Amino acid sequence: MSVPTHSPADVAVGRSPPRVDGAAKVSGRALYVDDLPCEDAWHGATVRSSVPHGRLRGVHLDRAFDWSDVTVVTAADIRGCNVVSLIEGDQPALVPVGGTIRHVAEPVALVAASTRARAFAAAAAVRLEVDELPAALDLDAALRADALVHGDDNVMKTLRIAKGDEVERALAGCDLVIEGVYETGAQEQMYIEPQGMLAHWDEHGACHVTGSMQCPYYVHSAMKVLFGLDDAHAIVTQAVTGGGFGGKEEYPSMLALHAALLARAAGRPVKIVYDREEDVAATTKRHPSRVRHRLGLMRDGTFVAADVDLVLDGGAYVTLTPVVLSRAVLHAAGPYRLPHVRVVGRALATNTPPHGAFRGFGAPQAIFATERQVDRAARALGVDPWELRRKNALRAGDTTSTGQVLEHSVGSLAVLDALRRVAPSPRPDHEGSSSPAWPPPRDELPDVRLGSPVRRGRGIAFCMHGAGFTGSGEQRLAGRASVATRPDGGFEVRSSSTDIGQGAFTTFAQIAADALGVDGARVSVLEPTTDRVPDSGPTVASRTCMVVGKVVEDAATALRAHLLAWGRAHGLSGADLGEIARAHVRDVGEAERTVTYAPPPGIAWDDESYTGSAYPVYGWAACLVDVAVDDDTHEVTIERCVHAVDVGHAIHPVMVQGQIEGGTLQALGWALLEAVKYGGGRVLNPRMTDCIIPTSADAPKMETLLVESPYPFGPHGAKGVGEIPMDGPAAAAANALADALGIEPACVPMLPETIAAARAAREGAT
Amino acid sequence: MTLRVRLNGRDLLLDVDPQRRLLDVLRDELRLTGSKEGCGEGECGACTVLLDGEPVCSCLVPAGQVDGSEIMTVEGLGDGELLSAVQDALVRFGGTQCGICTPGIAVCATAALRREPDASAERLRELLAGNLCRCTGYQLVIDALCAAARPAAGPSGEGAP
Ligand code: FES
Ligand code: FES
């Protein structure tokens, strides 16, 4: 038996102390929402539509069921504004009678009872009367306007980027134009803790909701709108949260509203915890995409122009789709020097449950297409794909597709070079040869050394990922955080940034301790509760460490200066900061410093023309995947996976490594394994049994290379890292399959049957 | 039905419906909420407990089946506030992030390393394949377990290529 011990030096920035919530989590003491003691809470359940599109005629309660101990809520019980407030107020919390049902998992009524089983039985005894309407269930149907789900053409949003000359003319001048269409499917976040929320109303008319979430202030504003509450009467607290990955960015608002509606009607606390099936069936997933891409280049490999037409399936309501589309469009040109660019992105509405945030937020879909295209270009030219990428990589001083000049922290060549250092050959079986030749001789026969015949291949991918909110987003958000004294001489960080596993609390404690000049063990991080922490902005977009961490650092620095000055004035010169803090609390009360984020200078963005500084800074990554494909079953084994990522500076290297590896595996799962299947607008495989994610036996050994090109405006040089690992690996895996089998994978996921079909098509063609 | 069990080293008599899932008895009756429900159908392993030393998914075990058995949950792995070697390693080597999978992993790994103290990293990947983790990508989990198994060797059980 032993306990984690650490010396003060181990807590400092750049070291990897045990995470602050680690002991509670490994011992089972950490309380997630379903673990919170609440003896008198009832359980809520949701009655959902069963048709993808229709008009709700009525909600009927089965007369044979005993309703005496059940609370029922419908839209008629909503006194305020029946919306789940987000970008657009188009999504109701419950569809009203006479209203339109837009997808199969749409909430229509709520029930609560003393046990879960009773609540589910009651939900099953509610009958919906619906006039079914024709539905638009996928991108093609939405484009044809088989049914109108949004506006008069199903287009939720269109965004355009134009750089340089007219793109057709630029392409006409190229030696070579690579053209392809790429499709990616929905992906389920599959956090292991399903969504859950607990709500109760107090005697002052304030509603308290506690649950699994990324963004307490999103929930807070949704509560205020629907219930007509002021700031103080909607109190939102994050419970320990079992993973989010974007999936708990906005859907928790829905659960909070539902639990609060039931709690008000029942006059007691109500808890809603989804089971896995409901979570997969109803909550948001990664947007399916289709990207048509043309890349024009010269015979010497110089990229000239890119023309990208990208569509995303937004699902039935707008939710976060315009922002996802924005990120997709802004990443569509990839990390390359391209004088001429045209990107047109459209988000379409369909009668499927809304698609939403998932790590990467539109960028992985765009990057899959770009990185497949670059690989095909390399093969067409007969050059090493690594060389081609390096030749065209953006460098400091270069201009992105929006005209942004890259000034700081441009680790593009550094990540490519780091990758090459550990994997010097373009082919896995040529490793070690001193002068790797390209193209290498392709084995005509599969490798049978291990019994079943396999073919091996290597693929790489290269990308950049904008850290923080897009354009002027951070300015608008004006995220705030505070650092305060505790009565015991310790310090407390107050922020609404949540720790969803990524380690925000530990990182904040490290950053604050460093700026205060005290031992990390003396800094605690307050549980995010909207009545006690300022709005730091949402926990999304790889912004928490880089943006909020910076604010925490500045607040801690300001607090230290204040305390030292106060100490000098009160005979405590030279005293320990904790001692001064204690004296301050005792004599004049708590000292607190709150700082608002100030974006770095020179950030100018024009939303109209889509030009300017799209992001304050970019992360850079290069990924390598080696595959072995069974020649008969087409089962894919990942034999090697290397990811070099420029993180600016790693505040906590172990947690940064964990972020990269977790994201990498999610991307490989998306690439090779994870298929959400739809039929009639419904998820056909809403369970872990058939909606599978990688296990430890599926996962490759990860080789993670941290590259540090410090970002001058991040805490200690840190920049965003949460999302970038999701961007490249799918394309790297596809490129490895191309190398191994001579196919050109054009869709995600690449399941054995997809690979077999691509091979058959290729053999048929030759 | 009254069940006689030894739970985390304590003898207990439990009056429960034999059809109830062991997971619900632990969580709702005994307030041992360290075992988590991620799927309710034996896929995720978040509910793993040891039943007579064997890791089982407590969401699949009817309470009636555990009469006369010895049960160990995550709450019983350490010694009061002290963490077990496996738990300690998971914290120190980054083997827990959101933590929802961690109790199940700690329980399963404890049994695995008890039975196969020399398990290689590759073998540990097989033994842990019933415990899904969506956060870590598993590398740091495996590193931590290798470190717990071989404290002197450090965390890099899978070695550098
Ligand atoms: S909850 Fe038991 S295996 Fe998932
Ligand atoms: S740490 Fe989050 S699922 Fe494993």
What does this protein structure show overall?
- The complex is a heterodimer of chains A (766) and B (161).
- Helices cover 28% and strands 23% of the residues of chain A.
- With 766 residues, chain A is an alpha+beta fold.
- Among the domains of chain A are: 22-30 and 479-596, Aldehyde Oxidoreductase, domain 4 (2-Layer Sandwich), CATH 3.30.365.10; 33-133 and 189-282, Aldehyde Oxidoreductase, domain 3, CATH 3.90.1170.50.
- In chain A, α6 links the parallel β10 and β11.
- In chain A, 60% of the residues are buried.
- Chain B has 161 residues and is α+β, with helices and mostly antiparallel strands.
- Helix content of chain B is 30%, strand content 14%.
- Chain B has helices at residues 22-29, 85-92, 102-115, 121-127, 139-149; strands at residues 2-7, 10-15, 48-51, 54-57, 70-72.
- In chain B, strands 2-1-5-3-4 form a 5-stranded mixed sheet, with helices on one face.
- At the A-B interface, α2, α17 and β27 of A face α2, α3, α4 and α5 of B.
- Residues 37-40, 42-47, 57, 59 of chain B line the site of one FE2/S2 (inorganic) cluster.
- The site of one FE2/S2 (inorganic) cluster has 12 residues of chain B, from loops.
Tell me the number of strands of chain A: 28
Task: Please name the fourth-level CATH homologous superfamily of the domain at 33-133 and 189-282 in chain A.
Answer: Aldehyde oxidase/xanthine dehydrogenase, a/b hammerhead
CATH class of the largest domain in chain B: Alpha Beta
Instruction: Tell me the CATH architecture of the largest domain in chain B.
Output: Roll
Essential attributes:
heterodimer; A: alpha+beta; Aldehyde Oxidoreductase, domain 3; 7-stranded mixed beta sheet; 6-stranded mixed beta sheet; 28 strands; 28% helix; B: 161 residues; Ubiquitin-like (UB roll); DNA polymerase, domain 1; 2 domains; 30% helix
